[in-house]
Amino acid sequence: MTTVVTPGSTGAYVKLAKLDIVDYYLGVLVVWALLAPASRLDPGVLATLGVFLVGEVFVIVAMVALDDLTGYRDGSDAANYAPDAPARKLNRKPLVAGTLTEPQVLRFALVTAAVGAAVWLGALAVAPHRPLWAVALVAVTYFFALQYSWGVKLSYRGFQEFFLAALGWALVLAPYGLATGDLDGVVVVQALLFGLGPLLFGVYSNTNDVEGDRRVGRPTVAALTTPRGNRLFVRAVSVCEFLLVLALPLVGGPWWFPLALLPTVVLRLRQLRVGFGRGDILRARRIGIDVHRVTVVTLVVVNLVVR
């Protein structure tokens, strides 16, 4: 049954915020599990991670609201969520569905962006450590999150795929730095793994949206290449993920880490088969979301055991 969303209602703003897509927010769980046991219940560390997560939610909500506004204005969302695309839920795009207006969306984005900035400043204020690289990473992440589809429009200049991964990397590395003041190889490799998760369902969305993106000049890999070239790119990113799994024991992780991540590898192969073997791109995207969440659970469990 399709839920009816009243124009201008709280439900319309919830749809705009995409709060059901929690995948970037899960990075804080990975960070917490990576901490030394004595730090996991430290009040200052917990406060830092909690405040950072709240700010992260507001920043990402602002980012996706601005993305929807740009997609509505250039017509790509109308094309990608057209009536002949029944697998896409139209009410997830309130502007296209007519449940919010452009001024309402812009105000919402500006307010959530301002709140996100204030909350992240609060996280910096309460953090036990403030290494320059972590503070700079927070600032850079904030700036470029809002420029994803607005301002300089990174996703319209050929940086979309890199950004999807880099955002995930930053949302692990920055809070870990604020909590500990340090980094090691295990943290870096797990951050890289975490960031590839959102990318490896984002590229399937791009594959589905290729015609709409081409129409408005949004240069995703899928839009710039042939179907074969796009398929090779997705396979290459999937191989990179597998190589990172193999690399973790080399940087100080347990020797059995690749065995623990075997479900991730198997599900990733299934995603490729469903998406490019059977041609069911949106189902493959859904599998990608599941793969990312399975990976996060595995990372958390492994870290709690060995850190």
TrEMBL record:
<feature type="transmembrane region" description="Helical">
    <location>
        <begin position="45"/>
        <end position="66"/>
    </location>
</feature>
<keyword id="KW-0474">Menaquinone biosynthesis</keyword>
<keyword id="KW-0472">Membrane</keyword>
<dbReference type="GO" id="GO:0042371">
    <property type="term" value="P:vitamin K biosynthetic process"/>
</dbReference>
<feature type="transmembrane region" description="Helical">
    <location>
        <begin position="185"/>
        <end position="205"/>
    </location>
</feature>
<dbReference type="InterPro" id="IPR000537">
    <property type="entry name" value="UbiA_prenyltransferase"/>
</dbReference>
<feature type="transmembrane region" description="Helical">
    <location>
        <begin position="162"/>
        <end position="179"/>
    </location>
</feature>
<keyword id="KW-0812">Transmembrane</keyword>
<dbReference type="GO" id="GO:0004659">
    <property type="term" value="F:prenyltransferase activity"/>
</dbReference>
<dbReference type="InterPro" id="IPR026046">
    <property type="entry name" value="UBIAD1"/>
</dbReference>
<protein>
    <submittedName>
        <fullName>1,4-dihydroxy-2-naphthoate octaprenyltransferase</fullName>
    </submittedName>
</protein>
<dbReference type="GO" id="GO:0016020">
    <property type="term" value="C:membrane"/>
</dbReference>
<dbReference type="InterPro" id="IPR044878">
    <property type="entry name" value="UbiA_sf"/>
</dbReference>
<feature type="transmembrane region" description="Helical">
    <location>
        <begin position="232"/>
        <end position="257"/>
    </location>
</feature>
<keyword id="KW-0808">Transferase</keyword>
<feature type="transmembrane region" description="Helical">
    <location>
        <begin position="21"/>
        <end position="39"/>
    </location>
</feature>
<feature type="transmembrane region" description="Helical">
    <location>
        <begin position="132"/>
        <end position="150"/>
    </location>
</feature>
<feature type="transmembrane region" description="Helical">
    <location>
        <begin position="105"/>
        <end position="126"/>
    </location>
</feature>
<dbReference type="Pfam" id="PF01040">
    <property type="entry name" value="UbiA"/>
</dbReference>
<keyword id="KW-1133">Transmembrane helix</keyword>
<dbReference type="GO" id="GO:0009234">
    <property type="term" value="P:menaquinone biosynthetic process"/>
</dbReference>
<comment type="pathway">
    <text>Quinol/quinone metabolism; menaquinone biosynthesis.</text>
</comment>
